[in-house]
Design brief:
The chain is 34% helix and 33% strand. The chain is of the alpha+beta class and 87 residues long. A hairpin with a 2-residue loop joins strand 4 and strand 5.
Length: 87
């Protein structure tokens, strides 16, 4: 594995069902909930965030950010970035 899971419970929940019931702390509402981070490049991270009352996934890498509604597209983007970061 070329990434570290930061929040195992939510990471696993996102893979099998909705994350709409995940409760954020005040800090997580501000910054998002980190789910995973690359071992090769610590600036590559996968977050769960809340936008206008809806949970979304965000892939952050360096100074760029991409939002995704669904887990599978976010994970696909994150793993693609992991492959690039590992080269």
């Amino acid at each position: 594995m070329n990434y570290r899971i930061s929040n195992k419970a939510v990471f696993e929940q996102a893979q099998v069902r909705s994350v709409s019931d995940v409760v954020f702390t005040e800090e997580e509402l501000q910054n998002g909930m980190k789910l995973a981070v690359s071992k090769d490049d610590p600036t590559l991270e996968l977050y769960l965030i809340e936008v206008d009352g809806q949970k979304k996934f965000e892939v952050r890498w360096d100074d760029s950010q991409e939002l995704f509604t669904g887990w599978y597209t976010a994970w696909e983007n994150f793993t693609w970035c992991l492959n690039i970061a590992g080269k």
